[in-house]
Amino acid sequence: MKGHYFLVAFAFLALASSLASAYDPSPLQDICVAINDPRTGIFVNGKFCKDPKLATADDFFFSGLNIPRNTSNAVGSVVTPVNVDQIPGLNTLGISLVRIDYAPYGGLNPPHTHPRATEILVVLEGTLYVGFVTSNPDNRLISKVLYPGDVFVFPIGLIHFQQNVGKTNAAVFAGLSSQNPGVITIANAVFGSNPPINPDVLSRAFQLDNKVVKYLQSRFWWKNN
User: At what angle do helices 210-218 and 199-206 cross, to 10 degrees?
Assistant: First the structure.
């Protein structure tokens, strides 16, 4: 009889374990609307897979990340992504990489979020002021000045930034925990959306005059990636 109870308990624990490990896959793009007829579908959550027998070394390769990029733009920075669009072999592996270059005297990677990834950054050269802001209600700023060889982590989904506070060029490599981490630059999304957000909404949200909001919406919001 005891053996019977043991088998029942074992089966129950096995079932509970299988349920605990079941979960919805993490989204790999902003939206994925369900359809009933698969013939009209053009996307999967991620990318379609090549026959493994046809894979080559080039599917897992990218060259040129050692080359500094031109930072002569409005924000003074440029992001070079190495995600699944550049390396097809990253599909389903949950990781990607970027190089970021910053102009001297204030080059900025503006406040932004990655909706699908945590970021870990290592400074190659230069001096950077970096930070992130925690969620409501605290909205606590956690920041630090970094030097070559320093590493900093930006938790998934939190607003963060980097600014070159030195007199020379700066550059970093950053790893992200998604093949397609996504990026939402706060100023671009709020004031540069298409179509524009109703100015009355932004006036009340930011406690600004309506004319100021319309002026901000009329500006060209530079995309550095």
Answer: 110
E-state strands within 91-216: 96-102, 108-113, 119-125, 128-133, 141-146, 151-154, 159-164, 170-176, 184-185
Give the model confidence (pLDDT) of 96-142 as tens digits: 999 999 999 999 999 999 999 999 999 999 999 999 999 999 999 99
DSSP state of 106: T
Do residues 130 and 162 lie in contact, with contact meaning Cβ atoms separated by under 8 Å? yes
Residue-level pLDDT at 13: 41
The amino acid occupying position 100 is I
Main-chain phi, psi angles of 188, to 5 degrees = -60, -45
Q: Which of 171, 166, 191, 157 is nearest to 100 (CA)?
A: 171
Give the Cα separation of 32 and 40 in Å (integer). Answer: 13
DSSP 93: T
Give the separation between CA 122 and CA 108, rounded to whole angstroms.
16
The Cα–Cα gap between 114 and 24 comes to 19
Chain segment 6-22, per-residue pLDDT in tens: 444 444 444 444 444 44
Q: Is the dihedral of CA 109, 189, 31, 86 positive or negative?
A: negative
Measured in residues, the chain has a length of 225
> What are 215's strand-pairing partners?
none
Element (H, E) at 202: helix 199-206
* pTM for the full predicted model: 0.84
Is the pLDDT at 45 greater than 80? The verdict is no
Type of residue at 162: Q
